[in-house]
Write a structure and sequence with these properties.
Belongs to the BLOC1S1 family. One of its GO terms (cellular component) is BLOC-1 complex. This is Biogenesis of lysosome-related organelles complex 1 subunit 1. By secondary structure, the chain is an all-alpha fold. The chain is rod-shaped. The mean pLDDT is 89.
């Protein structure tokens, strides 16, 4: 009887060991599957993150390129404005000089008219004296 009990105990122990071993194998399998799923989830999240960053960076890069292009156009416009300012200042100086010359011509013409009138007056006075 005691042999039978020992056999039952060893059979029971073997069954328990077998159940524990199966449980450990299943736990390892589940852990491996969980790790694989976790790694896949992390890869997917990283890929999504990279795609989102690339999308945002693409817009930022385009905005940066546009900003640089606008800055270059502003510099070119500033150069053009400076050239037009210089040209306008030259035209203004030339116009002022022409204005001054025209005033002098007007003054000279007025002086000539006065001289003509004075000469005619003197001529008339000399004739009157000569006739008298």
């Amino acid at each position: 009887m005691e042999v039978k009990r020992r056999e039952e105990r060893s059979s029971l122990e073997a069954s328990l060991l077998h159940i524990i071993h199966e449980h450990q194998n299943k736990a390892l399998l589940i852990r491996d599957q969980t790790d694989k799923a976790k790694k896949n989830a992390l890869k997917s999240a990283q890929n999504l993150s990279n795609l989102l960053v690339d999308t945002v960076n693409g817009g930022v890069e385009e905005a940066f390129i546009n900003e640089k292009r606008i800055e270059m156009e502003i510099r070119a416009l500033l150069v053009t404005i400076a050239w037009y300012k210089k040209q306008t200042d030259q035209w203004l100086a030339t116009t002022n000089a022409l204005n001054t010359v025209l005033k002098e011509i007007g003054d000279f013409e007025n002086w000539m008219n006065i001289m003509d009138f004075d000469c005619k007056s003197i001529n008339a006075a000399i004739r009157n004296i000569h006739q008298a």
